[in-house]
Structures are given as structure tokens and as C-alpha cells.
Amino acid sequence: MHPAETQPLEPRVRILIVDDVPDNIRVLSRMLADEGHQISAATNGRQALKLAETCAPDLILLDVMMPEMNGYEACAALKADPLLQSIPIIFITALADAEDETRGLALGAVDYVTKPFKEAIVRLRVRTHLELKRQRDFLDQLSHIDGLTGIPNRRAFDLRLDHEWRRMLRSGQTLAAAMVDIDHFKEYNDAHGHLDGDDCLRRVAEALTQQIKRAGDFVGRYGGEEFICLLIGPHAEGLSAVSEQLRAGIEALQIPHGASPVSPWVTVSLGAAICQPVRHEPPANLIEAADRQLFTAKRLGRNRVSLTTI
Q1: Exposure string for 224-241, b = 16+ CB within 10 A, e = fewer
Q2: Nearest to 23 by CA among 130, 115, 125, 122
Q3: In this structure, are strands 218-223 and 175-182 parallel, antiparallel, or unpaired?
Q4: With contact defined as beta carbons under 8 Å apart, do 259 and 184 qualify?
Q5: Between the CA of residue 204 and those of 91, 186, 192, 208, what are the distances in Å?
Q6: Of 42, 45, 154, 306, which residue has the fewest beta carbons closer than 10 angstroms?
């Protein structure tokens, strides 16, 4: 096969091994590294949570008996996080009591591997649950993608907002949301037809996605002709620049809009808000503030940006 025709390699599977006994980590790592997996390790539950939040693994092998935070507690914390709860967890334990196994499965674990480890059993169970996860991830991805534009949908945004809000609580960083609304889109559909309206939505979605490129930032379709961007850790000045860049980028597409009193081209109004998440304050406050700024941008004449800090 010609080099230009080679298929891109699939990303390596990431497996997190959590055990307070280093020898157990070494044994399991050796078994699974031969399968070509990328292995990371933690020696306690709290460290495992931090690693999972930084880079979510595809599967976790989790020891039950650990000091400070045991396996059951770590499992419960992982299952409480919307962006981590789908990671399959296989408990590794010396316990053989049915009650212990039932407790782990009730918390959301998918399987148990008992000590001492039998290599063939470990490999087969890991392989089985990775394949099941691949199938679930494919179906889950379909449910989080907007069918028209191909970008994340409202459901995907709600999950991301909840996750980033809690992450920013721990890190002390700021979080910003920008709501983007296509100006006079109903009139666009009436004048140009719904097929052109669909194409307009796709082009706006693509342009927004091209502008928001920082790792961790998010662009999704909020509903109808509204889009939403989530920016991680920007300063207020940075938010202003990004927001204006988004507005100008849509206008630069020069999509004709024969029914707009604002411009001969399709334009957007944008409302944005930035805050440092505070405990006991819901993330919805950030979205409501951005929505109020969007209303202000429309009231002031559209094709403009309105910002606030809360």
C-alpha cells in the first residue's frame, strides 16, 4: 500500500490501574502492556480520581482495599461524575465473599478479578469490557451530536457544563459561556427557504468550531438558531476578544441575507458572561447571565457583542 493510502492508527486504549501495592500494579501492567494498551497507575483512590479527570481512561482496574479512600468510595465518586460514569470499572480484590461482590456491582462495577491474578482471565475480561465500551461509546456519541450540524447538541453541553463547573471549583479558574444567535433567522428562512436555512446553520456551526480551538473549550448547538461556547479559564479581556472574533468570523462568511435590516449578510448577536464558580451556586447562573447579555445585544441593534462578569 502506498504511504499516502495508509489508514490512521486508532488511538491507544488507556487503562488505569489503582492499587496500593506496587507489585500488583507491576504484574497487571505487564499482562496488559503486551496487548498494546497505554497503562497509567495510581496508588490510592484520590489520585485515581485526579488522573481520570485529567485524561479519562477507557477502563479502570480498581483495588477494593485501600487506605484513605477505598475502592468502593472511589467507584461511587467516579459514577457520580457525568463525564466519567460510563468508564467500566473492574474491581481487583482478594475478597471472595458474595456480599462484597454484590456491593461492588451495585455501585456500578462491571466485573471482578480476584487475587492471585490469572493472566488469561485478566486479559479476556479486560478485552470483553473494552469491546462493550466501544459499542456503548458509539451509540452514546450519536445521542450527543446534533444531526443537522454535526457538532455537540444541548445534551452534550449540559454534561460538559456540569463537569467543567465542578472542575473549576477545584482549580479556582474562571469559566465563561458565550451564547450566539443568528440575527433574523426566521426572516432568512422565509426569504431563502428552509434548505438554505439548514445550510446556513451548518456553515455557522463550522465557522464557530474553527474559531474555538483551545483544548478543553466547547462549541455546541443550543437549539434552533442558537449556539453556545464554553471557554475554560479565560480572562475577561480574553473573552471580549474571542467573542468579537466569533461575531466577525460569521459576518466574514458573507452569506447573503436579503431580509435582514441589519446587514446584507448573515450576522450574529452574542451575549457572554464570565465567572469564577462558587460552591452552592448552580452553573445555570452563568448561562442565565449570558442569555441576558444576548438579549441586550439584540436590543442594542444586533450584530454585536455584550459581556458581563458575575
Answers
A1: ebbbbbbbbbbeeeebee
A2: 115
A3: unpaired
A4: yes
A5: 46, 15, 16, 6
A6: 154
Counting Cβ atoms within 10 Å, is residue 20 exposed (0-12), middle (13-18) or buried (19+)?
A: middle
The Cα 23–Cα 45 span in angstroms is 17
Tell me the per-residue pLDDT of 75-114, one tens digit each, with 9 for 90 and over.
Answer: 999 999 887 898 999 998 887 667 777 888 899 999 998 8
Separation of alpha carbons 232 and 224, rounded Å: 25
| pLDDT, tens digit (0-9, with 9 covering 90-100), for 52-67 | 988 889 999 999 989 8
* pLDDT tens per residue across span 281-309: 999 999 999 999 999 999 999 999 999 99
On whether the CB atoms of residues 216 and 282 are closer than 8 A, the answer is: no
Question: What domains does the chain contain, in order, with CATH numbers?
Answer: 3-143 (3.40.50.2300), 154-309 (3.30.70.270)
How far, in Å, CA of 207 to CA of 228, rounded? 13
Q: What are phi and psi of 43, to 5 degrees?
A: -105, 5
Rounded distance between C-alpha atoms, residue 169 and residue 181, angstroms: 29
Residues labelled catalytic: 225
DSSP annotation of 9: P
Can you give 34-95 as a three-state secondary structure string? CCCCEEEEECCHHHHHHHHHHCCCCEEEEECCCCCCCHHHHHHHHHCCCCCCCCCEEEEECC
What are the angstrom distances between the C-alpha of 46 and each of 3, 29, 77, 79, 266? Answer: 45, 20, 10, 14, 49
The low-confidence residues of the chain, meaning pLDDT below 50, are: 1-9
